[in-house]
Design a protein that fits this description.
The protein is about 55% helix and about 20% strand. Strands 1, 2, 3, 4, 5 and 6 form a six-stranded antiparallel β-sheet that branches. A five-stranded mixed β-sheet has the order 8-10-11-13-12. Strands 7-9 form a two-stranded antiparallel ribbon. The chain has helices at about 5-55, 60-65, 75-90, 125-135, 180-225, 240-295, 300-325, 340-350, 350-355, 375-390, 445-455, and strands at about 95-100, 105-110, 140, 145, 150-160, 165-175, 335-340, 360-365, 370, 395-405, 410-415, 455-465, 465-475. The protein folds into three domains: about 5-180, 2-Layer Sandwich (Beta-Lactamase), CATH 3.30.450; about 240-325, Helix Hairpins; about 335-475, Heat Shock Protein 90 (2-Layer Sandwich), CATH 3.30.565. The protein has eleven helices and 13 strands. It is of the alpha+beta class.
Length: about 475
């Protein structure tokens, strides 16, 4: 056996891998989409706040601030701007409001530590956004940054104009409060995914076991059959589809067992039937040798012994022919022929034998079109007629009849002989079963086999003075 994954493992993977991909991918996508939407909303809000602040500032006052304005208690202008911005910062719950010029030097920093004229180094992370702001647009940073308090923040930018030119920029930093719950949601979703996968793994294990265990039983049954065990029954399975497989496998086992039993019967029958004529041949050849070895051979007796040898050889040939006819699977032709003409022709083969024995052979066959192998079916009917003639006494009648009924053609062979013994009747179609001393016991099984090969049936009823073989064939049968 190969070393690949077993059915159970494949079923588990089939369940779990797509689910894991869908849950993990879907959860990650949902997280990123939600975070992106919230970041954009926060950025737009911060940029809007920055624009509102910028519209209230006078550019010349902002640009007039120098490091000296922050010394001591600070200049009046510096204190006024900081107070104004601190009020806005508190009202909007911002972390920081920073106003800087085009050289990226701070002018007013509320919530931060930069003094007027100090360079704002952290602006380097938002160079692309600042270029748009310098062109007159308001923008928000694209990257969340983590503050010293462990919180995540985002920055909104808006231009400060003087005479239509952008001369300074207002930056406001707001807390990304959504990020904490969103992170918790991400871990919660991850935990939910793990729980779902565990539950699905249990369900998949149950389903795979439900499927794989019956299939493993079927495999074991198939291996037993393959190894020659035709006696052990294939157990039924509760699942509909696998139960159908089990029933078909059991039917196959029964067919194989039947054929094996028939083959053994045939071999036993051939051995038994061949032994008798071989014994006779041995006896008569011995007598023939004695006759020929004498000083004056008796040619008449020698000729009689030779005749007996030939009869035994003919019987051997008939055994072999019957055996091959029964055992060989011959192709069945599918040609149309007339049922009435066919039965009259079959009866013609037995007219001489019936006349010689003083038996009347009566044929009453209606015309109908059948399809099949006429020559094979003729052999089957001739066999039935031959048995009937042999079972009849002088003056008795054998009747062959045929007629269409209910979409089938029904034919019968009836005789008035002594009948088939009751204990023999159930075995009449078994190979090599015969009640005659010189019968091979293959004629009736072969006839039944030929009718069934054409989609027909063959049955028998018998009592003293009335034995009847009845066969059916489908009209228009394709064989």
């Amino acid at each position: 056996m190969g070393r690949g994954l077993g059915l159970r493992a494949k079923l588990l993977l089939t369940f779990l891998v797509p689910t894991c991909v869908v849950l993990a991918g879907g959860g990650l996508g949902l997280y990123r989409t939600s975070r992106g939407v919230l970041e954009r909303q926060l950025g737009e809000a911060l940029a809007g706040t920055a624009a509102s602040i910028a519209s209230q500032l006078k550019a010349e006052r902002v640009l007039s601030l120098t490091p000296e304005d922050a010394e001591g208690e600070g200049s009046r202008t510096y204190r006024s701007l900081k107070a104004q911005l601190a009020e806005v910062k508190a009202a909007a719950e911002l972390k920081r409001i920073l106003v800087f010029d085009m050289a990226h030097r701070a002018r007013v920093d509320v919530g931060g530590t930069l003094l007027p004229g100090a360079e704002v180094f952290e602006l380097s992370r938002d160079e692309r956004e600042l270029k748009a702001v310098q062109a007159g647009e308001r923008r928000a940073s694209q990257v969340l940054f983590k503050g010293t308090d462990g919180q995540y923040y985002l920055t909104g930018y808006a231009p400060v104009r003087a005479d239509g030119r952008v001369v300074a920029v207002v930056a406001v930093e707001g807390t990304a409060e959504f990020f904490g719950p969103l992170t918790s949601l991400r871990w919660g979703f991850f935990a939910l995914t793990v729980v779902a996968l565990l539950a699905l793994a249990l369900a998949a294990a149950w389903v795979s076991r439900t499927l794989s265990v019956p299939l493993e039983r079927l495999v074991a049954s198939a291996l037993r059959i393959g190894s020659g065990d035709l006696k052990t029954h294939v157990p039924p399975e509760p699942t509909v589809e696998i139960g159908l497989l089990a029933r078909e496998l059991e039917a196959m086992r029964q067919n194989l067992e039947s054929r094996d039993r028939q083959l053994k019967l045939m071999l036993d029958g051939v051995a038994h039937e061949v032994k008798n004529p071989l014994g006779g041949i041995e006896l008569f050849t011995g007598l023939l040798a004695e006759e020929l070895a004498g000083p004056q051979p008796n040619l008449s007796d020698a000729q009689g012994h030779l005749t007996h040898v030939r009869k035994e050889l003919d019987y051997l040939k008939r055994i072999v022919d019957d055996f091959l006819a029964y055992a060989r699977e011959r192709p069945v032709a599918s040609t149309p022929f007339d049922a009435g003409a066919w039965l009259h022709s079959a009866a013609g083969h037995l007219e001489g034998e019936a006349r010689a024995k003083g038996v009347f052979l009566v044929v009453n066959a209606e015309a109908a079109t059948l399809r099949g192998d006429e020559s094979l079916l003729t052999g089957a009917v001739v066999n039935l007629l031959k048995n009937a003639v042999q079972a009849s006494k002088q003056g008795q009648t054998v009747r062959l009849a045929g007629a269409s009924a209910e979409g089938r053609y029904r034919l019968s062979v009836a005789d008035e002989g002594h009948g088939i013994p009751g204990d023999a009747l159930p075995h009449i179609f078994e190979p090599f079963f015969t009640t005659r001393e010189k019968g091979t016991g293959l004629g009736l099984p072969l006839a039944k086999k030929l009718f069934e090969a054409h989609g027909g049936t063959l049955a028998v009823t018998s009592q003293p003075g009335a034995t009847r073989f009845e066969a059916t064939l489908p009209l228009g049968s394709t064989g």
